[in-house]
Amino acid sequence: MRPFLVVVAAVLLLAAAAEATSSALLGINYGRVGNNLPPPTAVPQMLSSLGVGRVRLYDADPATLRAFANTGVELVVGVPDECLAAVSTPAGAMSWVRSVVQPALPATKIAVLTVGNEVLTGANSSSLSRSLLPAMQCLHDALAQLGLDRQVAVTTAHNLGVLATSYPPSSAYFRKDLLPLLCPILDFHARTGSPFLVNAYPYFAYAEDPTGVELDYALLDPAYAGVADPSSGLHYPNLLVAQVDAVYHAIAADNTAVTRAVEVRVSETGWPSAGDGNETGATPQNAARYNGNVMRLVADGKGTPLRPTVALRVYMFALFNENMKPGPTSERNYGLFKPDGTPVYELSYRLPKDNTNSGAGGMGLVDMVDTSSSSSMCGCPDDDDGIVILSRWMDGRMEGRKPLVSNGVRGGTLGALLLAVAAVDKGIDGSECHALV
């Protein structure tokens, strides 16, 4: 097929997807790395009181899937990193879809599969990266064979560490070592109409360089004057939209045709309400301002300076504070709520009442990201004496200049690598990834 026709087909796919999705644009992460959190069955009612109609999970935990059955809440279900090899073959992908996705439908509304998380930049990237695209393609093909590909999309989430540079946004480009992997992934998104997801945290840009990054710019303060991109002349009112446009520019630098067909969405963003002594800016006041401003920004329905007509879609991190997350204090303090359901702080902005999943599919407002599970993460039985906890860490610091945009992701201090903590890791083989028990 000629490149022009590929782009036209992809644009038509995006248009069809837009018609099927809700007008809701904002997401919030629902993590379960804690021993004091309410059970999944208690969450749908809480989400309803917040006007939340969509949830994104990082695994296919059976109890969680059942908790959302017949609730009308749309789910984005994760295929964990541990399962990538197993689902990277046609037979393995079909087995997973038949055992996990198909039985849950239609009672449980599964709209999207996210294949892995930050695979290309994680500590296990060397062993997992080559399986990422085959897993995405095989899962999409399996869904298509079952007539579910229009109902369930396939994507993956990246951190901003995939960028070699992000300042200014117009000069951003992908790391050259990742291009052999990213180029075909971008082609996959263009062909299927699925979004390119990034985890973006202005907090880390500020925390790592508080004298070079204005706090109001990082907090998305609507009164802040903003920063101009000296190359493009575009004006950036806040750091989050600058980060998103940096990704758009990186995609365009790789393939101009593809960038017209691929939408960038923010799969994680947040601000901690507490931190260690060296975690500058981690306060409840700043967290309240940031998350309130994210809600306001997305509720306005506007796009970025580069893509003003494409409404920005964002997933906030997180619903609850999670007391078993490893790492610095901030990691356990991203929640809007304490485990008992009381607010950690009062937000200055509330979502509009129509913030629900009025559409039939897709990843819109409000989507949630469940960052872990108390069961083994392939949708398999629990390990018999504990949980597997995985936490990915990437350094978000830009070298050599004060950033307009940061490649920041959760957990980044200079030189930080993946801190993978397994409370119990019995090991998960490929066959276990196929079974939903």
UniProtKB/TrEMBL annotation:
Enzymatic reactions: Hydrolysis of (1->3)-beta-D-glucosidic linkages in (1->3)-beta-D-glucans
A GO biological process held by the record: carbohydrate metabolic process
A single GO molecular function term of this UniProt record: glucan endo-1,3-beta-D-glucosidase activity
UniProt entry keywords in alphabetical sequence: Glycosidase, Hydrolase, Signal
Enzyme class: hydrolase
Signal peptide range in chain numbering: 1-20
Keyword Ribonucleoprotein: no
Protein origin, superkingdom: Eukaryota
Key word Acetylation present: no
EC nos: 3.2.1.39
UniProt xrefs under InterPro entries: GH, Glyco_hydro_17, Glyco_hydro_17_plant
PANTHER family cross-referenced by the UniProt entry: GLUCAN ENDO-1,3-BETA-GLUCOSIDASE BG1-RELATED-RELATED
Annotated family: Belongs to the glycosyl hydrolase 17 family.
UniProt protein name: glucan endo-1,3-beta-D-glucosidase
Source organism of the structure: Oryza brachyantha
